[in-house]
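Changelog note: in this version the structure field was regenerated for every chain. One regenerated record is shown below for reference.
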Amino acid sequence: MAWLTATMGRRAAARAMLDAIAARPAARTGDLPDVIRVMRFRIDAASLSDEEMLRRSKSIGAGYRKTPLLVVNPAYDFTDLATVNNAASRFQLVTPIPVLSSDVSSVQWVDVGFWIRPDGRTDEVEILRGMRAESWARSIVRQVEGRVYSSFAPAPGEKGASGMYRVERVTLRQRYQVPTGSLIARRVPIGGVETLDLTAA
């Protein structure tokens, strides 16, 4: 109920609900303290500074013994400008969509949060911060939803019975080059993404 309230934009009410839940004796048992802490983080994430985002992500990851191995890693289902141009270059074809002096490419990134459940499946994948509206960002969510990690069974008393929460910073790969019609180097996409696990950074 608290998370549903948060998705409706009522974040203060959602925090109050979590406070009420956390005050109950049962909330201090098992994995519930960790689940509540992750829920607070998810509610607050959009308004956090970079420093606070990293600090709280690392705090969540600190209690886990180790991250499961990534067994199934689906391909991303978006095709960007750089992918098309790189494919043409491999066959020595004319660049179909050349980068021009008028093109501007900003740094594009998203922070993705998700659970890795004990059976290795991902769950509750969402964009926490960044460029939510971009089509490639939605592709990142679909890619994470399709991942499968190695299964794990936490030892008695060990954190992780509900799974492990992970936060990744995903950034489109870019480099500086001089585009057609210009003498000034600027940032252009080169295809693919770079991923950083913030919970282990």
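Spot check on this record: The helical segments are 2-7, 11-22, 32-44, 50-61, 81-90, 135-145. Residues 2-197 form one domain.
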